Amino acid sequence: MTVMDLLSRAVLHKAELAATDNDKRNNALLCMADALRENTDSILAANELDIAAAEGKISEVMKDRLRLTPERIAAMADAVVEVTRLPDPLGRILQTVTRENGLKIEKVSVPLGVLAMIYESRPNVTSDAAALSIKSGNVCVLRGGKEAINSNKAIAAALRNGLEKAGLSADCVCLVEDTSRDSATALMTARGYVDMLIPRGGAGLIRSCVENAKVPCIETGTGICHIYVDAAADMEKAVSIVKNAKTSRPSVCNAAEVLIISSAAAEDLLPAIKKALVDDRTAEGLVPVELRLDSRAAKIIDGTAAGENDFDTEFLDYIMAVRVVDSLAEAIAHIAAHSTGHSECIITEDSESADKFVSAVDSAAVYVNASTRFTDGGEFGLGCEMGISTQKLHARGPMGLCELTSYKYIIRGNGQIR
Amino acid sequence: MTVMDLLSRAVLHKAELAATDNDKRNNALLCMADALRENTDSILAANELDIAAAEGKISEVMKDRLRLTPERIAAMADAVVEVTRLPDPLGRILQTVTRENGLKIEKVSVPLGVLAMIYESRPNVTSDAAALSIKSGNVCVLRGGKEAINSNKAIAAALRNGLEKAGLSADCVCLVEDTSRDSATALMTARGYVDMLIPRGGAGLIRSCVENAKVPCIETGTGICHIYVDAAADMEKAVSIVKNAKTSRPSVCNAAEVLIISSAAAEDLLPAIKKALVDDRTAEGLVPVELRLDSRAAKIIDGTAAGENDFDTEFLDYIMAVRVVDSLAEAIAHIAAHSTGHSECIITEDSESADKFVSAVDSAAVYVNASTRFTDGGEFGLGCEMGISTQKLHARGPMGLCELTSYKYIIRGNGQIR
Fold this sequence. Notes:
homodimer, globular
């Protein structure tokens, strides 16, 4: 089946799904979770095929991401059940006004229609994305990577089975089985069929989607996150936050990549930060962070000399670029020039500096005295997330269920004309 | 100056404008309005050049749209002043939550950054768009059509002068003087410079923008609006609403193009509607509406036989396609297949039918017993509008000041790590 055939079938079910109530959609999610559990064996068998095909082609780390176990499938099912506990994002009255002419205007949240997702990640994204789509009343069309195609087919088959058991059409969740570049292009250009395209994966995939999409597309995920340690920083907070933001999970987009430090604090603080990121970790047998230092930082601590691109790179690794500045203004200017608009943090006890920073820094999440690692749907209280938007149109930051909705105006009159 | 040079200058002023308070932005609008009034003579002289160049090339109607008069310039200035009376769309706290770990998360409205607009319309769009952009803290880059280039240059010069008098940079409002296709393409593809592109004009322009844009773009304006006259319609309301929606201003996007009528009501109502749209107007010396009838309607009233495309055409003229259906479901299916998602209306006294219609019809504005002509920022109480979005991402329906904003999350902590 071509992507266009698939989309032609998917759009037929928009109205059916949009008309369901929260109970019906929650029931579908429970059936989908059951189906995942019931089909554990076939999903594991399919996953074996992917693992075998990957042999010798991808790293052990990547292979571990691809591998499913009974526990991981149970966790996927649990995550689907978890979504039933979130509030209904549909039918929210966002605004009500009665005009002088008697027209009653209501702005009501509705599904977007068809969500398309192109992703490279682990097979659990297939069930996570399907669950959030169904809960928000959206038909979804999922195109995962070729490395996980057998796993994704088995997972999608189970989810579709669950939908049917719940009395919904299986085509409310569609998997694109063709994992060629052509199928991605077809999704990106399917005007009138796809209401929102979400790419989720590496920077190359996201750039390709944003540049080639003719359908509404959300730019997600790239995070060159900065921490600015102000002259008035509390030393303990600074060390602890930098350490957490850099080392707790360096491969994720909300990890910090760049440390900017006030020259007034650098002499005292850089050695303490280096101790936490490098010396202590080495002593504990952990991977030490490679510090890539500008010339001023290099006068205070040891490290690698920062190269031309080190302040514009999402390392996703135990690497951190370090720059010393003379003022808050210089830090803000550096961030404006180098940030991807994801998450930035100031560490300071000076509330005026904090206010200036949060007002001037134009990123999805701007922190005062807390780790950038909190930029996450769950941590923000959204309960879940479909990705982190780094653009400003429609959704910014973690995208929960509400960000998967649109709205319409319902206007009730009694014969009004203009 | 190339478009990229212009954009490189424009982005420099994003932060400056974003940091202004409402008073400063309102004062800038007052200075811009004064400057329009003070430069009336030079704007009129520039407009004369456009009118002379248009001689023999465009219709009298189009020439009238292009022509400025002292009164029209005064009206433009008044419209700019009007915008100062609207509430500040920036700094709205959209959500506040304090998490268990003590993090205080605020979601606050902020400007998008740089708005680009490509338009073909009358010169007053230049001042309207600039006023809404400045009020919402956005730098704007405006590219009007070549037929109005001299007028637009003179208007933009005045507006920029006003900005400087108010202590803001003139580059907060930039006019692209190159009106070639290349300059439009440059705006559509300026990733990282343009935060939202709004095309405003004919269907061709909008399609070209949506298909070629690599920057976030809002699809606007095309309206194939339907009125469904239900079996339970009130005859008087039906005639009055259809007449208003079709004839009060047929050239605008919220005018109705298609009448769908229940077979149960058609025998009684079609003759009455024809009388109002055709016979009465002829008797009054007005342009009669050409009714393009499906075969069932043609058995009841006289008119032209509807052709293949008549149910998929935005006539923007005194033409209306008419179809008879047997049920509400058939009407809803017709609308799903042919609507552009702008505005649709049901005329009925049956609240169950009304509820079904507003729930099933997937358009920006869905009416019960009122004219589609109300789909307008002013009529919806937004005070103004930048266009009518017919897409579901970011903004749907009339786009007022709030639709020209994004948000950011501001997170204040006390050393929290994850």
